[in-house]
Description:
InterPro entries: Mito_RNA-Proc/Resp (IPR051240), PPR_rpt (IPR002885), TPR-like_helical_dom_sf (IPR011990). The protein is mainly alpha-helical.
Amino acid sequence: MKLYSANSPLSPAILRSRARFLTSCSVSTSQSQEDLSVSPIPEPYLKLDEFGSTVNDPRSALNYFKWAEKQRGFVRGVDALCILLHILTKSRRIQAAHFLLNRHVSGNSSPSASVLIDRLLDTSQKCSSDSRVFNYVVHSFIEAGRIEDAAECFDRLIESGNIPGIRTRNALLTALVKANMMQKARVLFEEMVVRGFDCDCFTLDMIMHACFKEEKPEDAVKYFREMRSNGMEMDATAYNTVIRAVCKKPDSRAACEFWKK
């Protein structure tokens, strides 16, 4: 379905109907009825049943969203953004979804992390969305340098039962360590272990580096032993890191033990 044409004006009725795709937009109450042919007035609640063909047409949905953003009276709403993200992710328009997220997350008027995640969770029930959209949100906050917001998103996703993938978990752990947020990094790692989430050697190496930054190499050894006892297959990097840790104590006996491995 073609949502608009630059050469053919939209009637007020079509604008009202299609504007349901956007949310939380407003205009002055004194605006005349004639102005409706120029500026869409999106209604506060999205009705997806009226946009069935649009949900299956990501290009048209994205084009309409971009067009609507430029119209007089448009106020960016969270639900419209969330619905579009679901549409793009479900149709595997990953680059478009990622670009859209990065633009909104890094903007001055971007929604708070809690609001964005809550609305994404709510609208996902209407869209039969792909769960990868939640991973993209966490990554976007990380890339924007909003690490605490990324951690808040992660916590809300865990509470809702939407578990971010291991790449997202590792990216958040790395960001926390680089930002010297060691306590939060430890909490994240220990929660992953307690909940039985998959961890890999990268996960372990990062938390051991956090221990080095805190000058607690003995904790790095402790984490290594725990993960090995849980059945993790260690790689050369993990062994090199733990050998560095025991040498800082120093503990030549433990170093020889790990060296033989």
